[in-house]
Amino acid sequence: MRVEVGAVRARVAQMMVLAAVLGGCAGSPDGDDPKSSPSASAASRGTGAANAPAERGGSIGTAGSACELPVTFDIAKDWKAKAVDSGKYTSATDGDGGDGDLAGDLADALLHQGPVTLACEVDAKPAGNIGFLRAWKGEPGDADARAVLRAFVAAEDNTSKAKYRAFKTGALSGVEVEYVYTSKLLDESKKECALAVTTAHGPVVLHLGGMDSEEHEEMLPAYELAKRTLRSA
């Protein structure tokens, strides 16, 4: 039995199934928009008042940090980072011909999205929100940040209203996107956003996902903090 990627990527599956398997923003389309990316429109639990910058809680990406990545960035206060070893779950579910194959399909759908693989999860729950800032990384190559980000969004399925814009932070140049994801299982839509940069060690995608659009808006200051402090490791 092969799990349909679109169904697996429904938000309920992505939050609940990933926990089981692992043990546990906008401009004009296709162009560079000079306008600033969106900021929170509601008071943020754990990140301060509406439109206020998130308070820094530390940084990740360097050797010895919670997640070692090709980039470093700050995470919001009380958000908790945890590295994801995708190879561990792939090898644990390979080739046993039964439930293991199903688990392997789930792991593959949840740990890989387009050209990148899940490497780190930063959990907002300790700060009072339901959602994650996830870091994905890919293999070195010739693909630019826009191509990587487009492939990432396309692989999620059931997305619409994608608006891309270029941004620059420190010495890094990248592309970010704001879009709408619609769950066929729940018949509900919600906002999501992501950014991509390329490094000598491969592309990196940061994706912000929450339970619904309200959670997304409340967590945007944490996303903006990560984007603003993003640097090559």
Characterize the structure shown.
The chain has 233 residues and is of the alpha+beta class. 27% of the residues lie in helices and 33% in strands. It has helices spanning 5-8, 11-22, 86-92, 99-111, 145-156, 213-228; strands spanning 56-60, 71-76, 80-83, 112-113, 116-123, 131-137, 159-169, 172-183, 188-199, 202-210, 231-232. A hairpin with a 2-residue loop joins β9 (188-199) and β10.
Sequence-ordered SSE layout with sheet pairings:
Elements: H1 5-8, H2 11-22, E1 56-60, E2 71-76, E3 80-83, H3 86-92, H4 99-111, E4 112-113, E5 116-123, E6 131-137, H5 145-156, E7 159-169, E8 172-183, E9 188-199, E10 202-210, H6 213-228, E11 231-232
Antiparallel strand pairs: 1-2, 2-11, 3-5, 4-5, 5-6, 6-10, 7-8, 8-9, 9-10
What is the gist of this entry?
This protein is of the alpha+beta class and 233 residues long.
Give a quick set of tags describing it.
233 residues; alpha+beta; eight-stranded antiparallel sheet; three-stranded antiparallel sheet; 11 strands; 27% helix
Number of helices: 6
Radius of gyration: 17 Å
Q: Structural class, from secondary structure content?
A: alpha+beta
* Straight-line N-to-C gap: 41 Å
* Tally of strands: 11
Uncertain spans, ≥5 residues at pLDDT below 50? 1-24, 26-49
Order of helices and strands: HHEEEHHEEEHEEEEHE
Q: Outline, from the CA principal axes?
A: globular
Let me know the largest β-sheet.
Answer: 8 strands, antiparallel
The fraction of residues assigned to DSSP E strands is 25-35%
Average pLDDT value?
80
* Helix content class: 25-40%
What oligomeric assembly is this protein in? single chain
